[in-house]
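During the reporting period the student researcher (J.K.) took over the structure-prediction task from the postdoctoral fellow and processed the backlog of single-chain submissions. One of the processed entries is reproduced below for the supervisory committee.
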Amino acid sequence: RMMQGLDRRGEILEIYNSITRPKLNELNEKLNMLVNFNQDSLRIYRESIISFAMARRIAGLISGVVIAAVFILFFMKTLRSMIANYQNFLRGFKKLSKGKLDVRLDVISRDEYGILTLSFNSFAERLSRIISDVKKSSGILKAATIEILSLGTAFSDHSQAQSIAAENISSSIRGISALLRGIGGTAGDLT
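J.K. obtained the following structure tokens:
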């Protein structure tokens, strides 16, 4: 029996070594391959997450730079427009202060500066009209003053002549009065 049991064990060992062990080795290799594959997949996944995070950071940085560049370009354009409008106003006011009432500014934009430019042009036009009206009124006033002075001089000359004539009449009346007194005194002596 023992022999029989040993044979049986030998047979089982032989079956194990010939069939089961290679299958187990094959299964172990497949399992190792699967573990290696999972480890490789996990390593690739980690690397892809790191790469994705890096790509997100780079994309965020690039979009930040692009937004900043667009903002700077917009700011520069707005600043140029403001400076051009400011210089336009400055030239207009300098000409206006030098007495050039026909100065008109070009409307450069349709924003607040355009409205200010239109207001400046309207102001310059009204100022020109007011000064023109004052000059006309001044001419009329000057002519009236000259006429009044001329009439005053004529009146003064006429008044002086009247005054001299009145003085002559007054002197004549005094002479006549003295003469009448003299005649009246002589008549009183005779009586």
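The committee noted the following: Helices lie at 2-97, 112-190.
J.K. will present the remaining backlog at the next meeting.
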